[in-house]
Amino acid sequence: MSSLPSKSLETFENPQQDRDYTIRIRMPEFTCLCPKTGQPDFAELSLEYVPNEQCVELKALKMYIWSFRDEGAFHEAVTNQILDDLVAATQPRFMRLTAEFKVRGGVYTDVVVEHRAEDWSAAQPVQLP
């Protein structure tokens, strides 16, 4: 296989560091294992962030997400771990990760975690007529 899962997150320089803008990435094929049963858990991850100096490189992100496939993790723990790793790699102005886990035993789980840089505040929304 030419590609393998990896815990390494690569970045590249934000081409517009003087502007707040939002990057949205959807990852509909996230899988990890239930730590109690060993059965697979499936989720769609949605990442939204306002970059500062660095952006996450997409191929590295795919390999990173793939690295959870054979790991047991509670939904809350894995969502927080992914956000923590992404924040450590990119140091964004703002980052939100939403994990929408598929039904298991009649129960859906959504976990939303956020990071906000101490010196950053969101711009006021623009309302057009």
Please characterize this protein's 3D structure.
It is a single chain. By secondary structure, this protein is α+β, with helices and mostly antiparallel strands. The chain has one domain (11-116): 2-Layer Sandwich (GTP Cyclohydrolase I, domain 2). Helix content is 19%, strand content 38%. The chain has two helices and six strands. It has helices at residues 58-66, 75-90, and strands spanning 11-13, 23-33, 40-50, 54-56, 94-104, 107-116. The strands form two sheets. Strands 2-3-5-6 form a four-stranded antiparallel β-sheet, covered by helices on one side. A hairpin with a 6-residue loop joins strand 2 (23-33) and strand 3 (40-50). The relative contact order is 0.22. The model has no long low-confidence stretch (mean pLDDT 96).
